[in-house]
């Protein structure tokens, strides 16, 4: 990728790059710019335009900084999962899982259903699907919905760590690292599986009394009627896409082919499918590529490399903590976007990429604002349920600590 050497930039442009970079990441940390209604995607757009306008990034260079493989994979997976959502695939799976389940096992069922969904599909969309489903079930069974909503949020984060397609930051890491889908799953799948059991243990410990109330209810869980005739094509396409992932096909190309096939339809209105796409997240990614590209041109990333050497970030435990802290300060996607430039310089970049994926994802369970999935659950549950910072943190903190410890120990041992 052609880059403008920092020595070729004037002092004014280097200062401008620092101001743009710090202002953008301030918004990523706070969620908005103080005094303005500027959200994270807006800040990414403004920052990207400012980098080009200040000539920190040359216009001809801008396209080189955007990783189209990551963008195509994210967009294609949104189309695929959106199609599955519209035809009722997730409700059908939930019916298969929950139809004959004893209500006392609802909590682990929600955890493992959310986690397994999120392992293969984008976890943000899984949360959008699962929250109304959980609210409906708990309402009809007269159960407190809070522990089950927390189960959706935390399990979707934990499950998504398993594969490249589990969440946006993993897609980014998969694209830049070149790690194959099977290799990624082999290293991080066990972390996700153990993490889901830890999630169950912590939520049962924190909300055991609420869960126990369901033990005396033996009536079947009410579920809506489903039209299975609409599911055949999407299920076949998804099976083919996932098979292609395991066979080593480029994830972006495989997902794009699957999305293209699903767009060939006589029954599904494509405009409804486009509404399932998180356009703000796509814009956020593109803007971040240019902001970080400008930071590379201005030498900001090189300075971070010096800090990495001073703090011994190449040690698995230290890097795990550093990624976890940074992910909770600026959110996981901006953290990964920044740190992706450091990892290739590590002595063992393969393990470092996996640690980056593991820690940035699992750290998202610490607070409500730790990941987009958490925010989706909290906002989707309103006005039925109010989830406070403390409601989430009292379960999220031990879940985060336990899963990060498991992830660090596993990757330190398996490498």
Task: Give the mean pLDDT.
Answer: 85
Radius of gyration: 21 Å
Proportion in helices: over 70%
Oligomer: single chain
Strand content: under 5%
Walkthrough of the structure:
- With 415 residues, this protein is an all-alpha fold.
- It is 72% helix and 0% strand.
- The protein has 21 helices and no strands.
- It has helices at residues 11-30, 40-53, 59-65, 68-86, 89-98, 106-120, 123-141, 146-160, 168-177, 181-206, 208-212, 232-247, 251-263, 270-274, 279-297, 300-310, 316-330, 332-339, 349-362, 372-381, 389-414.
- α4 packs parallel to α13 (251-263) and α8 (146-160) runs antiparallel to α20 (372-381).
- The protein starts with 10 loop residues before the first helix and ends with a helix.
- Residues 214-218 have low confidence and may be disordered.
Task: Give a brief outline of the structure.
This protein is mostly helical. It contains 21 helices and no strands. Helix 1 (11-30) runs antiparallel to helix 2 (40-53), helix 8 packs antiparallel against helix 20 and helix 18 runs antiparallel to helix 19.
Secondary structure layout plus pairing:
Blueprint (H helix, E strand, L loop, with lengths): L10 H20 L9 H14 L5 H7 L2 H19 L2 H10 L7 H15 L2 H19 L4 H15 L7 H10 L3 H26 L1 H5 L19 H16 L3 H13 L6 H5 L4 H19 L2 H11 L5 H15 L1 H8 L9 H14 L9 H10 L7 H26 L1
Helix pairs in contact: 1-2, 1-15, 2-15, 4-9, 4-13, 5-6, 6-7, 6-8, 6-10, 7-8, 7-20, 8-10, 8-20, 8-21, 9-18, 9-19, 10-21, 12-13, 15-18, 17-18, 17-19, 17-21, 18-19, 19-21
